[in-house]
Amino acid sequence: LVIVVALLSAFNAQIYATSRLVFDMARDGNAPGVFKYTSKTGSPLYAVILSMFFAFASVGLQYWNPPGLLTFLFNAVGGCLLVIWFFIVTSYIKLKPSLESTEIRVPGFPWIPYAVILGLLLIVLLMLFDPSARGQLIAVAVIAGGLTIVSLLMPNSRTKV
Description:
Blueprint: H1 2-27, H2 45-64, H3 69-99, H4 111-129, H5 134-153
Helix pairs in contact: 1-2, 3-4, 3-5
């Protein structure tokens, strides 16, 4: 019973977070405008429906379970973590000059962020030579390529820097 309640709580939190993310993206013009619609109670109705659709689709995929699907998804998550950390570090390098005017002081700049980027690149290089890890890089390349194509097809997809 405790495990079921914990899983339902996690599911609820994920639906909430995902729907609010899609709603905010639509409000900022980074997702279709239909996801800005809210119900009388203020819930982003179509964003919640989209989140629920993908939640149930993932459960359906688990029952269908084509060969290699679970491995691909695990590899994609692992590889995406590398991409996320790369963006975190590069964002830090870009935003560091604006942090100078605040009281935030981080020792080791600029050496530590560049050392992290070098470490991430070394991990990717090692993954290229490891047949069991190469799948992560392929999964990330497929996902990144797909997301890039979708973003280019969206109206107003010009990058704002």
